[in-house]
Structures
1.
Amino acid sequence: MRPSGRQLNEMRAISIETGVTRHAEGSCLIRCGDTHVLCTASLEERVPPWMKGSGKGWVTAEYGMLPRSTHTRSRREAKNGQSGRTQEIQRLIGRALRAGVDMQALGERQITIDCDVIQADGGTRCASITGGWVALRLAVNKLMKAGKVTTDPIMDHVAAVSCGVYAGQTILDLDYPEDSEAAVDGNFILTGSGQLVEVQMSGEGTTFSRAQLNSLMDLAEEGTKALIEAQRAAIA
C-alpha cells in the first residue's frame, strides 16, 4: 500500500556516521532513507547576554536546506532572509534538545547545533533532532573529558519521528510521497524514557479521531525506540 512497499509500522533504513567534520566539537551525518542531514555541535564559552551571571548554559539550533536538497533548486536563504518555515523548525530543534539537558550542569557556555539538509525526502526536522542529539552528546563528551563539567549535563536521549494517516491507514516515518498526500501529518518528539517533549499534528483538509491519534502515538513510541537504539550505537 505504501509507495515504498514498507509495512505500516516500518521505519526507513537508519544510519548515523559520527566525526564527519574536522573542527566541530561534535558532528554526525544522519541518514533516514533518502533524507540526509549533516549535524554539527559548536561549543562557545559564553551565553546569550540575557543569561550572563545565571550560572546556566544554553543549547540552541540553526537549520537550513541546501539549494539542491530537493527536486528543484531553491535559492540560498542567506541571500533572501530565513523563511518562516526555517525559523519555526530551528526553534523546534532547539526546544527539543534543551529538554534533554540540565542547563545548570552545563555551566555558562553555549552549544549551537547546526543542521544542514543535504538531501530531503520527508522528515527533515525529525532527522535534525535525532542527529542533533548525537552531535550534542559528542560535544558534551569532550567537555567532560577535559574536566570542564563535573556532572553529565545530558539527562536523556531525545529523538523525533513523523507519523501520519495515508490512504486511510496510520503509518510510521513518512517519506516525501506520503507526506505530500497525507490526510494527517504529525511530528512526535520523545525522550529515551518515553516522555513526550512535543507533538505537532494537523489534518490536511480533514479531521482525525482519538483512536487514530492513539495509533499514531503508539507508532511514534515504536519509531523513536529504534532511533534511540541507532543513537546509542553511534556514540558507543
2.
Amino acid sequence: MPTPSPSSPLTHFDAQGQAHMVDVGAKAATERTAIAQGRIVMQPATLALVRSGSAKKGDVLGVARIAAIMAAKKTSDLIPLCHPLALTRVAVDFSLQPDENAITCTATVQTVGPTGVEMEALTAVQVGLLTIYDMCKAADKTMVMQDIRVLEKHGGKSGSWVLA
C-alpha cells in the first residue's frame, strides 16, 4: 500500500501507510454540532400507512426515531477508527413529503469534545431510514434511500461548514 503524502487530506494513516485511529488527545474540547439528512421514497400506499399509524409493525416513525438515536450513540462500535464520544444531544426529526412519496430524516448531534460528530449524525439518519424500510418492507419492497449527506457542521478547529 502506498504511503499517503504529508499533504494528503486523509489522516487515518500512520507514517508506514497503515490505518490507525487519529490521536485527538491534544485537541481542545469544544462544542461541536453536525446536521445530516436523508430520505426514503416509497409507494403512495406505504406512505399512507406510515402517516395513519396503521402499519402492521406499529408506530414506524416513533421506532425509527429511537433506533436513530441509539445508532448515533453506538457509531464508534459500527465505524472502524471512529472515536467514542459522549454525545450531549441527539435530535431526530421526520418530515413526510406526500407530493414526493417520501419521508425525510434529519439528525442533529452535539457533543463537547476534541472531534466532530458528522459520523454520528450520518449514522443516525441511515439507521432511521433503515428502520422505516424494515418496518414497511412487507408492504413495499421498492423503497429507496437517497441523498444521505451532512448538511452542516459547527465547532472545532475548522469552524463552521454549511452545504451550499
3.
Amino acid sequence: MHQPSRRLTARTMAFVLAGGRGSRLKELTDRRAKPAVYFGGKTRIIDFALSNALNSGIRKMAIATQYKAHSLIRHMQRGWNFFRAERNEYLDILPASQRVAENKWYLGTADAVTQNVDIVDSYDVDYVLILAGDHIYKMDYELMLRQHVDSGADVTVGCLTVPRAEASAFGVMDVTAEGRITSFLEKPRDPPGMPGDPDRTLASMGIYVFDWKFLRELLLADAEDPNSTHDFGGDLIPHIVKNGKAMAHKFDESCVRHRPDAPAYWRDVGTVDAFHQANIDLTGFDPELDLWDTNWPIWTYSESVPPAKFIHDEENRRGSAVSSMVSGGCIISGTEVRKSLLFTGVHTNSYAVLDHVVALPYAVINRSARLKNTVIDRGVEIPTGLVVGEDPEEDAKWFRVTETGRVLITQPMIDRWSAAR
C-alpha cells in the first residue's frame, strides 16, 4: 500500500540541551539557567529553539535541564503546555534526576541524551535533532533534515560563517567544497579558513541531526569509554568525522528571513554586553530580528496584563517613549524613555530618564532616577534619584560594570547601595 509522503520533521524529535549555567551573564543567571533568561520584551531565550522546532513541524520535543532549572521548568509548564499526547505530540522535561546511578548527574551534552535513551525510544522517531537552548535565531529545521537524508550523512552539523579572528570561541571545522567535514576542533587557538575564503571559518551552532538508530549505538558505546567526556562537540562529532560521514549545513541556507535580502540573524547573548546590545537592537527602525513576522512566530508564555499606559503631560514630566519597545502592563508615569526595551509590568515614575535601558519584568524605577546603558534584573526597585551610567568608577563600587561601560543592576546590589547610605 502506498504511504503518503510526510515532512521529515514529522518523523523527528527535538532534544533541547538546556542545562547551561551561563556564567558569563554574571548575576543574571544567579537564579536561572541561561535558556530561561528573558529576551525581547516577552520571551525567554529557549523560546527561539522551541518555536523553530514547532514552526518547522516538529511535535515531539524533550528538554534536558540541570542548572537552577526551576524558572525554566515553570516557564515550560505555563507557556508550552499545549502539546496533546492523543495527537501524537509530546514535550518532556528531563531534569538531571540520577536515573542511571545515584551519583550521576548529566556528565556532558551527549550523556544527557544517553541517560534518556529509553524516553527517546518511546517516541518512535527516525531522526533526532539536537539543539542548544541558549541562542537567538530563526531556522527551518526541515531544510537541514532534508540535506541530512539526501547526503546519507551519519551526522549533519549546523554551521555559521564567522570571521576567523572570532572563531576560537566555537567548535570549528574544515570542510571540502562538497561540505564534508574533514576535521572538527573544539575552540582552537588557530582556526582553519574556509575553501576559497581563508579569512572566514565555519563554526558549529551546536545543532546536530542524526538517524536515531545510529546515534543510539554511538551513545551507548561512548558511555562505556572511560576516556570520553561524553560531549557532542568534544567526543562524538570528532569520532564521526574520523570514522564516518559528517556533513556541514550552512545556516544561511535555512535561516528564516523577513525579507529576501535580510542578513542571517544568529546571536549568542551569553555576555551582559551581548545581551544588552541584542535587546536594544530590537528598538531600531528595521531590526535584523523580526518579532512581528506572523509566518514564523516566537511562541511563549503570555501573561494576561492590561496594555501599556503613558501618563502626565507637563514640561519635564511627560510619560513618553521614543525608539523603544514597551510591553503590556507597563506604566510610564512622567518618565522620558529613549532607545529602551521594557519587559512586562515595568513601572516608572515622574522625572525619571531611561536611555538605552533593558528593564526585565516588574522592575520599578522611582522618581528622578537617571539610567543609561543599563540592564535591570526582574523585580528590582531602583531608588529615588539614583544615577547610573554617567560615572563608571562610582557605578563599579555598587553594580556590575562591563568593559564597554554597560551596567547590570540586581536587587542585592541595590540593597548594598541603600545600606551604605
